[in-house]
Amino acid sequence: MSLLKRSLVLAVLMLAPTTLAQPSGELVIYSGRSEPLIVPVIRLFEQQTGIKVTLQSGTATALANLILQEQPNPRADVFIANDAGTLEFLKLKDALQPYLSEQIRKIPEHFRARDGSWLGVSGRSRVIMYNTKLLKPEELPKSVFELTAPTWKDKIAMATTRNESVIAWVTALRLVKGDEFTKDYLLKLKANGVVTLNGHTDVRKAVGRGEFPLGLVNHYYYHLELRDGSPVGVIYPDQGPTDIGVFVNAAGAAIVKNAKHLREAQRFLDFLASPEAQKLFAELNFEYPLLPGVPVAPGVRPLETLKLMPVRLDELGKELEKTLKLLDEVGLG
């Protein structure tokens, strides 16, 4: 059994899938996204099309493994994931149905599979958030690689390395800096006392309360904590001329191979790439809309102003198991 399957089997067993009726005009979606972030989008789709959606939520990695188990007779028509790596992994397992429409082609190629197997629907950058009462502007790090310095010992929080966004970030580091460098970097972070918490919400709240001066998060967690009234700021790291840039990942969606409601699934993916849905993603969670011309939420730094890490998102999936193995060797938590 592969490393990925060993790591996911318990989570899959806890999903307890139910039998889902699939008459004409319905759509079954498996979603790894938090329901408050995706349900408003689904409701708008239902209102506009009259198609009834059945939603099954869970962790993205467990649902991905469930899709593999259910082939060639899947329950799900569409899969929504928190990151491109999970989608690309399913593509490599031949579990997705490519679809490239005129609307989907409007999303920049960097944020979708080249063969149409999956579509990025919203973006998120990996940033460092900080507590403004604990740190002065002149004290702030400018690179994630500065976080191994003695200055930051026991002062950094991050989400568990089981988190999809963390796994994707580590994979991107491997692709840009190599396995040896990345493993050494993570070991130095561990030795410097970085604390891993259950999730990014825990990290942003801990930084907001002043329990840690710094936290590694997706950019929208900073905005959520700022909206809650906490004294926090944000650093977009590695933006210098010789720096690697900030990693920008995408939450995305795909049609499951052998989907029973292919037409409805195609309509849903076209809808996700529409201005209406893209605007909702920006407003609900401060994420980057990926359709050109749709504005970011007020206060969010526009994506086009960032220096991006030179990694194609459709390169992440094939590296997933190697990243999991490296993280297991590091034992960061």
Automatic annotation (TrEMBL):
Residues 1-21 form the signal peptide. InterPro entries: Ferric-bd. Keywords: Iron, Metal-binding, Signal. This is Iron(III) transport system substrate-binding protein. The keyword Amino-acid biosynthesis does not apply. One of its GO terms (cellular component) is outer membrane-bounded periplasmic space. Fe cation binds at Y220, Y221. GO terms for molecular function: metal ion binding. PANTHER family: IRON-UTILIZATION PERIPLASMIC PROTEIN, THIAMINE-BINDING PERIPLASMIC PROTEIN-RELATED. Pfam families: SBP_bac_6 (PF13343). It comes from the Bacteria. Belongs to the bacterial solute-binding protein 1 family.
